[in-house]
Backbone:
């Protein structure tokens, strides 16, 4: 029996890992012709449909850390499936892997919920070293000269619950860095990218910049949540979204920790958070109106787009085609023929 450490976003726990004893197939290796028997997956989609003849069937999505497979539960199999299962719960699936319209899909014959396996085992995780990324950010916090900004960063850093969530949260539900540790990785990438700007334009307010960078997506801690093996958007996240939640979060943290916080420094920090998506049509209520906020919005877009492109290629490279499928957010296909896997991995 293998025991592996796994960091959840609440506590650091040692799980007895029965995952590898139960699991015979991983999603990225599934091929047409395979038959699965009581194979565990996380449920990622379950949608009731009706055929033209009025027959009920379900679209289903099943996932593990290596990816997601979609498929069907046809009407004759419904009686053998637990259809009250919630997204993020672990299910054991019996069925077959088939090819449909050039895509690999699963046809489910039987599905039941299991609580024997930790859902955390099914979530994808960053491939970068989280301790190293945290150390790099902490070194930068220690160098900050503006006392208001440094106090704010340290108040956050020394709260074990905040730091735990910051290290484990994804940066998004689907779009980019959508895995455990994704938020930390995204912030770290932006920090690394910004170092080139700092060497070219040394006279900008880099204390403000780093504080804005560190906190720009802090609202994600309330916009998103990890439930079972699913990354979801909370109700507050839908209603307020992460930019608004980020401002509320920082405002609360400032009132709690430093009543003397300089009001101009606070306005500038809020400006960086509010404008980080760059354009009104991308969800920012103000456009960047400082060079620091302009650079922040650019490195944010860089990190997000490069992550989307590399993950898209990694997912599609098994197809053996020269180009990926169309990427709807980036609006293009990518040439993947000579792609070296794991381009985002820390060397
Ligand atoms: Fe954002
Ligand atoms: Fe971001």
Residues:
């Amino acid at each position: 029996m293998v025991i592996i450490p796994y960091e959840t976003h609440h506590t650091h726990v040692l799980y007895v890992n029965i995952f590898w004893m139960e699991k015979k197939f991983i999603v990225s290796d599934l091929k047409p012709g395979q038959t699965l028997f009581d194979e565990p997956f996380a449920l990622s989609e379950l949608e009731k449909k009706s055929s033209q003849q009025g027959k009920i069937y379900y679209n289903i999505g099943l996932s593990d850390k290596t990816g997601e497979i979609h498929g069907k539960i046809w009407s004759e199999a419904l009686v053998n499936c637990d259809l009250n299962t919630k997204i993020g719960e672990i299910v054991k699936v019996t069925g077959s892997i088939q090819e449909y319209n050039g895509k690999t899909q699963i046809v489910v014959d039987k599905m039941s919920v299991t609580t024997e396996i930790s859902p955390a085992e099914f979530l994808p995780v960053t491939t970068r070293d989280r301790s190293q990324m945290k150390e790099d950010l902490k070194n930068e916090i220690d160098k900050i000269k503006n006392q208001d900004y440094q106090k704010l960063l340290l108040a956050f850093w020394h709260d074990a619950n905040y730091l735990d969530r910051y290290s484990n949260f994804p940066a998004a539900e689907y779009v980019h860095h959508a895995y455990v540790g994704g938020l930390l990785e995204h912030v770290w990438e932006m920090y690394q990218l910004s170092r080139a700007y700092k060497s070219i334009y040394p006279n900008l307010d880099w204390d403000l910049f780093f504080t804005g960078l560190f906190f720009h997506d802090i609202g994600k801690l309330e916009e998103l949540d990890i439930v079972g093996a699913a990354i979801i958007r909370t109700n507050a996240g839908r209603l307020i979204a992460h930019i608004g939640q980020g401002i509320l979060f920082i405002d609360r943290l400032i009132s709690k920790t430093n009543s003397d916080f300089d009001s101009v420094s606070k306005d500038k920090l809020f400006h960086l958070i509010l404008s980080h998506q760059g354009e009104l049509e991308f969800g920012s209520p103000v456009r960047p109106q400082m060079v620091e906020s302009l650079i922040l919005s650019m490195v944010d877009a860089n990190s997000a787009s490069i992550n989307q492109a590399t993950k898209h290629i990694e997912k599609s490279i098994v197809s053996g085609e020269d180009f990926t499928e169309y990427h709807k957010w980036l609006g293009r296909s990518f040439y993947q023929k000579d792609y070296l896997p794991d381009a985002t991995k820390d060397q």
